[in-house]
Design a protein that fits this description.
single chain; six-stranded parallel sheet; alpha/beta; Rossmann fold; 2 domains; 213 residues
């Protein structure tokens, strides 16, 4: 189901912005409301346009994407920042999440996957390029829990770790999208985690699911 999403594109490369705008023009329920060339302009336009999602590059002149994300978290918390970058360094990823980003995607993401991932972010979920999860594991620690997952919940979590959206998981398991959401809520409760990213990180650490290749 399409949703009405107002998107602000932030990248210092005109070609990237125009390419994303052209791509999103083909997506039902998406509207690019503005473009910014750096973090300073991004903050100014976001406060003026109040987009649902700010799709933000990191390395830009005047003000980088991480500092712009910090400012938007304070000034405009209802707008969700999703980082779109070429930087696959886990330290940068963690810095982005700490700054308040709700997603961290590499520019190698497939267009259809980007479409679904942005919708999930708009619904309040966090998203992350699957290839980065494995890189992050050595930097993550958690207190063990005695709670365990059912076989079906492990299946769902494995597919989440591979980067599939709720809709794609539903299709693969021949269940409804609402059932997938119910499984995810149960998983988060059992693992005492706040979002799907944290749940995947913990399950990988415990060896309950396999790391994405």
């Amino acid at each position: 189901m399409a949703c009405n999403l107002r998107i602000l594109l932030v990248d210092d490369h005109t070609l990237i912005r125009k390419g994303l705008r052209a791509l999103m023009a083909e997506w039902e329920g998406f509207e690019v409301v503005g473009e910014a060339r750096d973090g300073e302009e991004a903050v100014e336009l976001a406060l003026e346009l109040r987009p649902n999602i700010v799709l933000m590059d990191i390395y830009m002149p005047r003000l980088d994407g991480l500092e712009a994300t910090r400012r938007l978290k304070t000034l405009l918390p209802e707008s969700k920042v999703v980082i779109l970058t070429v930087d696959d360094n886990p330290e940068t990823l963690l810095a982005a999440l700490e700054a308040g980003a709700k997603g961290y995607l590499l520019k190698t993401v497939e267009p259809q996957q980007l479409y679904y991932l942005l919708q999930e972010v708009a619904r309040g979920e966090m998203t992350l390029t699957p290839a980065l999860i494995k890189k992050m594991l050595p930097r993550l620690t958690r207190t063990p829990t005695l709670n365990s997952l059912s076989a079906r919940e492990k299946e769902v979590l494995e597919l989440v770790a591979q980067g599939f959206t709720n809709r794609e998981i539903a299709q693969k398991l021949y269940i409804s999208e609402n059932t997938v959401k119910n499984h995810l809520r149960s998983i988060l409760e059992k693992l005492q985690t706040k979002n799907r990213l944290q749940a995947v990180q913990y399950a990988l650490q415990q060896g309950w699911i396999k790391a994405p290749k």
